[in-house]
């Protein structure tokens, strides 16, 4: 892999009529789930948060992914780090608080203290060099990178690909929206009773959208999404959710729900159909930017039969609630869509649990992304 290139699907995105999803064991086997932890969950990049959550040195927040608790901390103006929330003495979690500001992380059990960079500062009654070597007892690191104001983590301290290698530089259209200058206004967390790949497959296709998502279908261009998703595959892709011709954003009317983001506030006439974003696979992170707001979905496998789906909504950081936006209006399309998908996925999973389940043929026209992404997953599992 050369620098600044996007990893492409291993095969051309030409869906085959013989494509299917996976056999039942991939959705129900505890053994396969354990293998996924090593082969997939500890290998891929996912979204953890936004720089606006930790503006000052020492600011931190906790992030949970695949059963692991990470401390995401601003070490300096330039550097954000991710540490496993596990004391190197006897393993206590260092902090339970969801966020805060510290000079040092002090373990509540025996008061070992750690620098913001994870280094062991002091272990009471155990001086450095006497019975222990402080250099060997830093907090276990995960990889953390900031891309266009968004913080991404990889549970591996030395990922095979950096995020920039995986994604390339942020595209000009996205930079014009100034993703670093947004603020979170709402966060929904759903737990779905199903395997994470059942939810992944749901998100990868819009074959179900016309029949199930009346709110999304108002401004989201379902037909275009068939072509767009057919190009997905590999570890990541760029692009947002397509907006219907002539509309300005995805909302219940297609009209703005907040003031324009970034440099679009200077536009005499707002551009239509702005749709920037990215996706990280196979455990899905989906970043969607429109001209006036952004949505980030993050999948977090909890067990072989449970997955958490978090959706976070953002608007311009100087937007004022009640003046520039109403939170209820910003969130209503995706809140409704998530609720519909939860029901679909849970019903889907109940069927997959049947001993009689065998995967049937995918629709080559409208479910084109499903098999290439599952093939990427299978390659990771080898
Ligand atoms: S477990 Fe943290 S200081 Fe003992
Ligand atoms: Fe859906």
In short:
22% of the residues lie in helices and 24% in strands.
Structure characterization notes:
The protein has 382 residues and is α+β, with helices and mostly antiparallel strands. The protein folds into two domains: 256 residues, Alpha-Beta Complex (Naphthalene 1,2-dioxygenase Alpha Subunit, Chain A, domain 1); 115 residues, Rieske [2Fe-2S] iron-sulphur domain (Rieske Iron-sulfur Protein, 3-layer Sandwich). It is built from nine helices and 16 strands. Strands 1-10-9-4-3-2-5 form a seven-stranded antiparallel beta sheet, with no helix packed on it. It has a six-stranded antiparallel beta sheet with strand order 11-16-15-14-13-12, with helices on one face. The structure holds FE2/S2 (inorganic) cluster and fe (ii) ion (FE2). The site of FE2/S2 (inorganic) cluster has 8 residues, from loops.
Based on the model shown, name its key terms.
single chain, alpha+beta, Rieske Iron-sulfur Protein, six-stranded antiparallel beta sheet, disordered N terminus, binds FE2/S2 (inorganic) cluster
Q: How far apart are the first and last residues' alpha carbons, in Å? A: 19 Å
Proportion of residues in β-strands: 15-25%
Compounds present? FE2/S2 (inorganic) cluster, fe (ii) ion
Q: Mean of the pLDDT scores?
A: 93
